[in-house]
Amino acid sequence: MSKYYKIIPKKLGAEVVGIDLQTENRPEVIEEIKKDVTNHRLLFFTNQGVISGQRHVEISKWFGELESTFTKHHKSPHPDVFRVSNDESEGCTGIGRTGWHIDGTFQVAPYAYSLYHMASVPKTGATAFIPLTDLIERLDSETYSRWNRLWMLSDRRTSPIHPLIYKHPITKKPVLCFHLGMTEQFLWDYKSPNERMTEPSETRALLEEIYEQIAKKNSDLIYRHEWQPGEFIMSDNLAVGHEAVPETQLSREDVGLRVLHRTTIKGVHKLIK
């Protein structure tokens, strides 16, 4: 419990009441917010007005060094802010629709945090989140054992090898390093006598299996967040998987303009099983 603000638990994460992100800079409050992001995995700040690109970056730096590997859009409010939209003249389109994932799996250390602000809210266009530790804890023993033998390789040319299941660097709870739309192959039993790469058909089957566990067998874990004007989200990127729902790509004429701003914080921990 914080003496600076109120926490209201949600299905996943918590809403923070009593903080004005436009002006908040007290070191003691920032430290509590950072701890609560770890504890709750997602923090939702409502009624924050329009967060400028510069202020978005300032808030992001509470968590560490920004890492901006994305395509730059000419309407982005800051070079370190990723601007996505349902209108290509307003932002990058199709983002988040390649499958459930965490951000930055192609990096030596995936992003530690992602921070989001919806600059223009359409009639519909949610972001779906799933708690990864809860998902893993529901796996049957056979599935867990197989997943625990797997390592993933992103489809980027110089991709590092990451364990599919590993320990969160802060909480030490089991989480997943995965991207259902940007995985080239899996590796079985890395650095063991039985090490081997998956064949393309095997890779597809494993990606489908992960999808089935998320979207069908454990769909009750999914939290679908419908954005409101003036909302800002801080996410422990390593603790929650996410995906943009299909409605995010509906046309501006049908649902209005969708503009989402996102920053990502550089990971500083190697993934350890």
Question: What would you say this structure looks like, in words?
Answer:
There is one protein chain. The protein has 273 residues and is α+β, with helices and mostly antiparallel strands. It is built from six helices and 16 strands. A seven-stranded mixed sheet has the order 1-2-3-14-5-16-4, with helices on one face. Strands 8-7-11-12 form a four-stranded antiparallel sheet, covered by helices on one side. Strands 13-6-15 form a three-stranded antiparallel sheet. It is globular. The model has no long low-confidence stretch (mean pLDDT 96).
Keywords:
TauD/TfdA-like domain-containing protein, alpha+beta, 26% strand, globular, 16 strands, seven-stranded mixed β-sheet, oxidoreductase, 273 residues, iron, TauD-like_sf, dioxygenase activity, four-stranded antiparallel β-sheet
Fold blueprint:
Layout: E1 6-9, E2 14-17, H1 27-40, E3 42-45, H2 53-60, E4 82-85, E5 113-120, E6 127-131, H3 132-138, H4 141-147, E7 150-154, E8 161-163, E9 165-167, E10 174-176, E11 183-188, E12 196-197, H5 200-217, E13 223-225, E14 232-236, E15 240-244, H6 252-255, E16 259-265
Parallel strand pairs: 2-3
Antiparallel strand pairs: 1-2, 3-14, 4-16, 5-14, 5-16, 6-13, 6-15, 7-8, 7-11, 9-10, 11-12
Q: Tell me the structural class.
A: alpha+beta
Total number of helices: 6
Percent of residues in beta strands?
Answer: 25-35%
Q: List SSEs in N-to-C order.
A: EEHEHEEEHHEEEEEEHEEEHE
Q: Which regions have little confidence, pLDDT < 50, spanning 5+ residues? A: none
Number of strands: 16
Q: How would you state the average pLDDT, rounded?
A: 96
> In order across it, which strands form the biggest sheet?
1-2-3-14-5-16-4
Q: Radius of gyration, Cα only, in angstroms?
A: 18 Å
The helix content is: 10-25%
Oligomeric category: single chain
Principal-axis shape equals: globular
Biggest beta sheet attributes: 7 strands, mixed
- The N- and C-terminal alpha carbons lie at a distance of 32 Å
